[in-house]
Amino acid sequence: GVSVEVIIDVNNLRDKDLLSLGQKLEIPAIGGGISNSNQKQEPTIITYTVVKGDTLWSISQRFDVKMTSIISVNNLKEISRLSIGQKLKLPITNMDIAKAEGYSQEAAAEEIIYYVKKGENLWSISREYNVKLEAIIAANSITDASRISAGQQLRIPNVPGARSNIANFIWPVRGRITSPYGMRVISGRKDFHAGIDIGGPAGTNIVAAERGRVSYTGYMRGFGNVIILSHDGGHSTVYGHNSVNLVKKGQYVNRGSIIAKMGRTGNATGSHLHFEIRLSGKPVNPLS
To answer: Can you give the residue ranges of the LysM domain (predicted)?
Structure first.
């Protein structure tokens, strides 16, 4: 027979003692599962290796696969217990949808290259970038979704909602704008200001306006100590005149992470942050 616990798991019941008249329940058939004759799309089979804490329910939710399908494909006899290291075949039926939404050969230029950090898994990466798990699997032709390693390169498809948008950027520092974006006159000479200057006390924390990767950190003529972050969607941000840079090239930072301290290095008459937003290398108005 089928245990009460399995029926609770399959139907995600909160109260096993409270059922409603006419309520529909899925009762998994041991070793067989439920017929899926209405399935219009051939599933893509991937292999998953069970890790500590996994249950059939948690795996089914993570990969958006019905528990009954997992039971059927794997011909499971004991469905209330999984063993660490156990291999499961997962029939992913929305792989084509994932490709359409998040990955195609034509859209390859839009994707993000990501290097896996220690302790991460595909699930946590998909949540961080708001990208469907199936889209990452499809983009990287992954067959065992549980086996990724630190330092491994992944292509993260730029699905709608995951792209960096200037409207989502936060202020890198609090302060008064001392010089706006655009044309300005300095010592009687017209000059185009590619960013904005924000004044503040030396040593004030400067934070990343959006999550991204440090593409440059060092000293640059005019800018002094400067940091450049690369973001999704072709955007980059520039943070200049810092008293000290606190990040390393290649490092990934989150929105709001402290990356530098305000200063007056380079061509600066007082303590302030020179802040730029660029799209495909061209400056845009941070206030737009």
So the answer is: 46-90, 112-156
Name the 3-class secondary structure at 122: helix
Q: Is 259 helix (H, G, I), strand (E, B) or coil?
A: strand
Cα(203)–Cα(248) distance, integer angstroms? 19
Residue matched to tokens 């059922």:
19
| CA of residue 48 relative to chain centroid, distance | 21
Gap between the Cα atoms of 59 and 148, Å rounded: 17
pLDDT single digits (tens) 112-150: 667 788 888 888 888 777 777 777 887 787 877 778 888
Percent of the chain scoring above 70 in pLDDT:
76
Residue closest to 109 by CA, chosen among 203, 232, 278: 232
Q: What is the 3-state secondary structure (H, E, C) of 12-56?
A: CCCCCCCCCCCCCCCCCCCCCCCCCCCCCCCCEEEEEECCCCCCH
Strand 153-156 vs strand 112-115: parallel, antiparallel, or unpaired? Answer: antiparallel
Domains and CATH numbers, the chain: 4-92 (3.10.350.10), 95-156 (3.10.350.10), 166-284 (2.70.70.10)
Strand partners, 118: none
